[in-house]
Task: inverse folding
């Protein structure tokens, strides 16, 4: 039997994962990876931390944990397959099963045969066709070369403008701020991470950015970039911002030209359409990683959310299927995590806004908790927002934001969502407990129980954002702080009235009957109890503030 | 309608949780909690950290996160129910539905009626009837008073002996070592945490204890304690150990006398038997917390594993059921976490040894991984052991040990086990990824894929312990280190031969055909690849070492 020819276009995450797995499964096949660049098999996600200065050698992003650079020689000697760098795929002949490739240095072209083709062509940053986009000092962050350029510009830059409040924009905002550069972050939507977080979660990120000195400009689209050869300033409809460096981070799009030209089907998102075995409309051609679209596990809809975590899974699955080990990719949950200065942010599944858009009869609740036993050193707080379907009581999604451990709680939720758990099941999980790691009732269990109380009609509540906005709009709402005087003295929500919970039962006459009353405490367990006490005493119109002082995303009085 | 009388015996975790929830659900009921001590509603788990000196005020363990001491006044004013402290329940009259209680100060007795009784009588430390057990300086750690005594003894103690290598023994060993005391830890089994961990995981804890200066004595049962009024030494069959302080931490047993005397059914474990609504054999009597037995979710067997996390859930569930909100407790997984010096240890579900005992056709695999992206500052390694059922491919349990983040991975496994996930499902979970939190393929996904390779017959491996023991028994095994010379120079497994993976394909003639060859690397991905290369080259008897250098629990050469 002849050896199969397997050709992989793209040698970063998905492509290299596929190639390595293929070699393990098939010792005989001719496996060839081609890539336009020399910088193969690099991790893009650690690049912002290079700019921040957390490691010195940019080549670290291409090294194995054991410290070996993953270059052509590594893949040849250690992994056992061939890599052609500085080599571009220009055309696919699907009838003949051949690929035309061009060497970008010699410009020589050749046609190579394939039995199986794997497209891992990745994504490319979106650069809007505005005036000044080509100025020196205006660039995206996708490659090692971009990182090197930004690092170099940052050595002398005084002012930087970051366009786009997504993951890369946030990470680089932090990195450049740590380097002493004045950072303006422009976001055209009214919140950062608009496709990932509800406004209520994003608002906590906004405060953190502002507290750390970032000039955050929301709902302010970029108009043009000005300069003379090099960038000098960025102009919006609201102002002009000096800039020695502009990071364009408004998003990426899949690289699909080669696929489209070959007549391979694209999906509704514009990315390559694949079945759950990572096969394109041509059964001899697979596509993986950032060039393909995914199925959202919860909604069943097609989405384009390119992430390294997904790319690595794709690589393994495609290789398995190519070798006859049939494996299905279940889809994604849009899980992600990001550190923004001292705040950790993570999310999975549907946001409350997503759930409404998708027509769910959904319900959400926000809780605040310590991330471990409160007296253990280093304990920090986290704010958890859970979203569930009212009828089935199934979980739909979660967002966790705080200075404490958020990724653990989101990964619990990822697992629960992947397996279709209800909020009632979540509340009973036998999560591990010890003071250095969690409270006796972990924060996520408390969040689940608080949501159950609300679903069961026992708790009546509103979010901090809702309370704030209704007061801003002139509604006569009493914010009732039921904490202790000592807590109140330390930090408080502007305009709130103090009435400690322990005194509430004896001072009911001080509570107005004709106003909406919103009791709250530090986390709002006492806020909830105040709601029950007041309702049991005959008050109507009582709704506690979810998450209490810790989830309030606006300014405090101190 | 008359107000119900609900009486709760025991005012620590489960009892107080039940009382608080009952009050929220039923504003009218007469709710009374009785407790033998004044120290109600305290957290026992943080007590070792008081001894270590991580916080100064012992009363912290009775405070809310907002800093309020949870005393009788707090429960009366804030939570709205009555607590009788220094009060003992002496008899239950189930016909009359009355409880006899005695005030421990005045010795007055009274009989109080109940409509519903909740037993939360807790556990008591096991003190074996050996000579010297009553000496001054010999005590368990269960109450705040014990913690205060140990703290006081530790101020002058030079030598301490801890009897029992369970959670409390390990935590106090660390606490006393940090205070400069010489600690001997006696364990009658050949490993610590014998009911929780496989030997291979415990062996990593053994090395950590020894490296941190603990005199760990395994398989060495206590014989007697000697002293003159106060303890002076502890004697075993192998030696005598000076001691100014002896912590008895061999386990606890449920407090069931009152229940047994009243004819309430006990379970096979000796703890009170309850149904999944926390009801005893008398439908008017509930039992919760450390006095009841649980069902193991995986095996379906009854177990006695008293933990604060379970107690809190019990309290809420009993209260719900008492108030007609029917809720079922699914059981437990024996999840736990513990910090032992710089090592984090957590586990859930069945160990490999448990799985064999319960008759599963089980398979396990041990993997080592960085806990986050390897170049991110603070990255540490973890060793993950997964256990699964061969036929159904369902996960059965997990153990994670390392200096990195272990609790996140175990809580993912808790969620997966609770919902009956297979190892194939686990491998596809869309866990969140960013360099500060995880690798692109999280450690637990890598562990799942490694186990799948083994289940599918592609990987042939043995654990580090198996390799070590077989060599110790004289078997002619070649430990083949396929790392780089630089890695080998830094640290190595004694007796291993170096042959870097990149050179393996060209140096096959150096590999003996007549010996068992055990290739390994730092984590054993390269070890696995070496196995494949050698097998593809016609070698038989190749089994890579699971988890590589990082999971080797014995001494290294440096």
Result:
């Amino acid at each position: 039997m002849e050896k199969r020819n397997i050709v992989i276009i793209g040698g970063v995450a998905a492509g290299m994962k596929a190639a390595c797995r293929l070699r393990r499964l098939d010792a005989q096949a001719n496996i060839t990876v081609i890539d336009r660049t020399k910088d193969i098999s690099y991790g893009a996600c650690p690049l912002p931390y290079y700019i921040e200065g957390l490691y010195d050698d940019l080549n670290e992003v291409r090294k194995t944990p054991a410290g070996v650079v993953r270059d052509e020689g590594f893949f040849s000697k250690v992994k056992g397959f061939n890599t052609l760098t500085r080599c571009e795929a220009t055309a696919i002949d699907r009838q003949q099963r051949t690929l035309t490739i061009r060497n970008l240095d010699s410009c020589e072209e050749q046609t190579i045969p394939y039995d199986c083709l794997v497209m891992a062509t990745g994504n490319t940053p979106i650069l809007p066709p505005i005036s000044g986009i080509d100025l020196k000092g205006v660039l995206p962050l996708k490659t090692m070369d971009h990182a090197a350029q930004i690092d170099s510009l940052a050595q002398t830059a005084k002012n930087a403008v970051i366009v786009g409040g997504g993951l890369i924009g946030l990470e680089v905002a932090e990195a450049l701020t740590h380097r002493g550069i004045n950072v303006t972050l422009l976001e055209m939507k009214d919140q950062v991470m608009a496709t990932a977080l509800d406004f209520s979660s994003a608002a906590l990120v906004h405060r953190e950015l502002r507290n750390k000195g970032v000039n955050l400009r929301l709902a302010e689209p970029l108009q043009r970039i000005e300069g003379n050869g090099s960038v000098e300033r960025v102009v919006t409809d609201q102002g002009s911002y000096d800039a020695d460096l502009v990071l364009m981070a408004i998003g990426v799009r899949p690289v699909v030209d080669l696929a489209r030209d070959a007549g391979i089907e694209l999906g509704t998102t514009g990315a390559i359409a694949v079945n759950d075995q990572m096969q394109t409309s041509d059964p001899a051609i697979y596509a993986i990683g950032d060039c393909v679209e995914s199925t959202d596990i919860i909604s069943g809809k097609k989405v384009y959310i390119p992430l390294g975590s997904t790319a690595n899974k794709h690589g393994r699955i495609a290789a398995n299927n190519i070798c006859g080990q049939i494996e299905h990719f279940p889809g994604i949950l849009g899980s992600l995590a990001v550190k923004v200065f001292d705040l950790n942010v993570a999310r999975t599944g549907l946001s409350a806004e997503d759930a409404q858009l998708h027509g769910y009869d959904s319900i959400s609740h926000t809780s605040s908790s310590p991330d471990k036993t409160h007296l253990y050193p280093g304990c920090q707080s986290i704010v958890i927002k859970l979203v569930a379907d009212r009828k089935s009581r199934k979980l739909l999604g979660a967002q966790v934001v705080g200075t404490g451990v958020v990724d653990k709680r989101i990964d619990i939720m990822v697992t629960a969502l992947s397996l279709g758990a209800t909020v009632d099941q979540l509340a009973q999980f036998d999560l591990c407990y010890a003071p250095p790691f969690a409270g006796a009732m972990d924060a996520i269990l408390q969040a689940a129980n608080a949501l159950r109380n609300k679903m069961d009609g026992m708790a009546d509540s509103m979010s901090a954002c809702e309370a704030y906005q209704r007061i801003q709009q002139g509604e006569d709402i009493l914010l009732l702080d039921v904490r202790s005087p000592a807590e109140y003295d330390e930090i408080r929500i502007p305009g709130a009235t103090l009435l400690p919970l322990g005194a509430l039962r004896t001072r009911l006459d001080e509570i107005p009957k004709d106003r909406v009353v919103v009791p709250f405490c530090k986390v709002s367990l006492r806020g909830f109890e105040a709601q029950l006490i007041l309702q049991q005493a005959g008050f109507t119109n009582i709704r506690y503030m979810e998450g209490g002082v810790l989830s309030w995303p606006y300014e405090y009085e101190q």
Chain B has a mean pLDDT of 97. The CA atoms of residues 52 and 179 of chain B lie 7 Å apart. Chain B is about 30% helix and 25% strand.
